Amino acid sequence: MVFPAKKKKRTADEENVKKEQTKNMSFIMADEEKVVKKVKKRTVQDDGGVKKVAKKRPREEAVVEEEAEAPAAKIKKNKNDGESAGVAVIAEIEEISEETRKVLAARGITTLFDIQQCAFRPAFDGRDVVGRAKTGCGKTLAFVIPTVERIRARGLTAQKGSRRLPVCLAVAPTRELARQIFTDFESIGKACGLKAVCFYGGTAFGPQCEDLRNGIDLLVCTPGRILDHVRRMTVDLSQCRVLVLDEADEMLSMGFQEDIEAILDALPKKDLQKLLFSATLPSWVNAIVTKHLVDPAWIDVVKEEDGNATNKMITHQCVSCPPLMRGDCIGDLCKVHAGYFGKTIVFTGTKKECDELAANEKLAAIGAGVLHGDIGQNQREQVMDGFRSGRIRCLVATDVAARGLDVPSVNLVVQTHPPTDMDMYVHRAGRTARAGKEGTSVTFYSSNEEYLIRLLEHKKGIKIQRIGPPQPMDLVKAAAVDVVKQLDHVHQDSVDAFTETAKRLIEERGAEVVLAASLAALSGHTRRLKGRSLLSAWEGFTALMLETERGIETPSKAWYLLRQWLSAELHAACKGMTLCSSGNQAIFDAPDEMVSKILGTELWKGCKLFRAEALPELWQREVDIGMANQQLKDRRQQQWQWIQEKRSAEKSGGGKDGGKSGGKGVGKFGGKGEGKFGGKGDGKSGGKSGGKFGGKSEGGKSKGGGKGESKAESKGEGKGRGRGGGGGGGGRGFG
């Protein structure tokens, strides 16, 4: 455990108390002799409490800066390079109760991560805390353990009559993160005699009111749902003593700032401890912290000696790939990096892209689940439970899954586009490589998004390696490993049942052929393996390398050389000439059926043409960071303007799709068409109504829905076709 050196001078009694604490608890004082306990092998944990065993966990430097005025983005770092924060063994910390120790031990947790060590003392003492740690380093337990132990030790539980009132309010930006935090509060709180509940949108309001009437101690919630209770006056927060904001930068951003202000107004003004935690703390958070927190302890265990703001166990890669090929390419990446027994999270920019990508043939074959804001709460819970248990191996999600979620064994994170929010990249990539494990983050980009990749490298200190898409042999090797693991799980009775058939096939075709075909069938490779260009990711193309002794200064020189050697037909079929950083090589694409002819061409002395086995390091033009920043600013402005226009259209049109909604039905028996996505309608007898998810019509009873069209007959009966045609009034027609 690390205690920060306080700036004020201690009295003699205080000094003796501190020395006694150091002796009994093995805490290491920042201004005293460091005590390092070497542990060759110990159990470490992640936020979800899954037991992991590691020989050695790299320990990051921990710093607690006492001054509240220090900007969040400029927290001072420990300059004593190489000095460790030490190991805090839970059994030696007197403030942690025996009940909590048993719960943690049952989850395989015997020591604390750095953020947990450093945050425990100030949080247990009741101080406001601002904490930052890299993803996967146990931030949830960093506030759960000291909060529960402080409530237990100080007797902070409160009652109103026979009903217990909430004394701790933990707020999270997403429902999934709220449920995850609740899991830790529930397990540890229950052991200490405290009742925890979790409130979020999409669930019934009545049972939550019943929980409040029965009495609770720890309340975990999302901003919208707790404000619903506050405005309906169904929750009493007058006795709340602790406020926790997880993913604090997101909670205090423009999207949630008004909600957080409203929540703070409903909480006591005095004796309220505030704990803010996140993996990223932008500089603008400092103004919010200064306004609402009192003399906070700034804790930062993010070691950025190399400038890398992400978990150093993550390998960062990027792939240039056209949008049409991304679904198939992502499916191949899942097979190579995660395989049959691993997990993948794919982040998309929009809900529409999320749905379309999950329907891709390759992703559907490995069981892709969808998670975004339009998914119903019950289905969201089923998807997350399936992903955690391994029934769903690929989760396609929007940024609703980007923050705080801790799912064990996520091997790969894929981003279909580079995010325009640099901090969001850190949170997305942080879903892998948790609790000391390694992981891979792959970002897809197009030519007009390359500047975002360069900005990420510059601002976050990340080295992003450009790679090509998985090749057929990569898929075969990964599949073979998975199939061998599956063979270990086959029951002996099943083996006996197929033995006779196996013997006959071996006699007819040979052992090697039968086994190879079986492995291919088990891994799903029954069709001919198709190659994909390392350079462009297009199927049916092969990346070829051109090398000369004299060097290649420009792509035009490379094209000139090819024109001298190849026929007009072969030359015209090649594309995508790109220089390599070596200075004497270039890489280009050629159709598979022409590769043998191109490689068989007679070349000049000192020149070579050969297949690219791996994507070489490509030449990169210098990027003006200032210009790239301006380009990013313009892009964000365009996105914000588009959002504002869409919202205005929704308000004026009365539906989600702006002008498409709330249309009119005109006709002899027509009326107004109203609905979420109403369309226009006209016709003689009740009219024809078309549009996306048509609506109701007045002047008769007509209901619509979906993409298609609805015709009302002269008798007044309307029938809907397509995906639910729009309503066209007339008599009693239903569209």
From TrEMBL:
Keywords: ATP-binding, Helicase, Hydrolase, Nucleotide-binding, RNA-binding. Its EC number is 3.6.4.13. PROSITE patterns: DEAD_ATP_HELICASE, HELICASE_ATP_BIND_1, HELICASE_CTER. GO terms for cellular component: cytosol. GO terms for molecular function: ATP binding; hydrolase activity; RNA binding; RNA helicase activity. Residues 644-659, 671-685, 698-720 have a biased composition (Basic and acidic residues). Residues 120-299 form the Helicase ATP-binding domain. This is RNA helicase. It comes from Polarella glacialis (Dinoflagellate).
